Amino acid sequence: MTTGRKAEAGGAMEAGTGTWRQLPGWVTGLILLCCGIELLIVALQLTGWADARGMATVYGGFWSRLFHDLWPVYPGQQLAMFFSYGLLHGGILHLAMNMVSLAVVARELAKLTGPGVMLLVYLICQIAAAGLFALMAPAAGPMVGASGAVFGLAGALVGLVAIRRRQRGQPMGPLWRAVANIVVLNLGLTLLVPAIAWQAHLGGAVTGLALGLWIGRAQPASTRR
What we know:
Transmembrane segments: 23-44, 80-105, 117-137, 143-163, 175-192, 198-216
Number of helices: 9
CATH topology: Rhomboid-like fold
GO cellular component, one term: membrane
Keywords: Cell inner membrane, Cell membrane, Membrane, Transmembrane, Transmembrane helix
CATH architecture: Up-down Bundle
CATH superfamily: Rhomboid-like
Radius of gyration: 19 Å
Oligomer: single chain
Strand content: under 5%
Number of domains: 1
GO molecular function: serine-type endopeptidase activity
Pfam families: Rhomboid (PF01694)
Shape: globular
Helix content: over 70%
C-alpha cells in the first residue's frame, strides 16, 4: 500500500512537472508575475496597508468610465489599463482559477501553434475583452483578471481544432460538446457571481475563436501539428 501510494504520488508529480515543461516560457513567466503581484498585495495588507488592493485597482484595473466621466490618475492610463488589468486579480481564489485555466489551455494550444503566435493571440484577446466590456458596460466599476484573455486562448483552441478535424474528416461532435461546456460554464459563473465581467469573457472568446479559425486556415500543411 505504501509503495503504491508513493508510485501514485510520483506519477502525479511527474505529470505536474510535465505540464510546466510543456508551457511556453512567456506563459510560465506570466503566471509567476501574476502570482508575485497577488502575494505582494496580500503582504502589504498583512503589514497594515489595508487598501493595497484598492490602490492597485485604481492604477492597474480597467475602468470603462475613463472614456466618459472619470479623469486618469496618470498620463496614458486609458491605454495602459488594456494591458495592466490582466495582471491583477480579486483575490487568491480568483488568481488560482485563472492561472490553472491558463496553464491547461496553453498546454493544449502549444501543441498546435508556436509560442509567439499564442502570445499575440493572448494580447489581442485581452484587448478585445476589455474593449467589449467598455462598450457593453460603460458605467461599470473596475475590472481585473486574466479570464478574458484565457477565454480567448480557449476560443482559439476550439477554432484550430475545428479546422484540424474538418480537414481530417473527423466528427465534430466532441468539439461542439466542449464548446457547449464553455458556454454553460460562463453562464453558470454569471448567475453565481453577478459581479463577473461576462462581457470580457464573451469578447475574448469570440475574438479567440475568429483568430483560431484564421490561423488554422493560414498555416501551411507542413507546420500543422
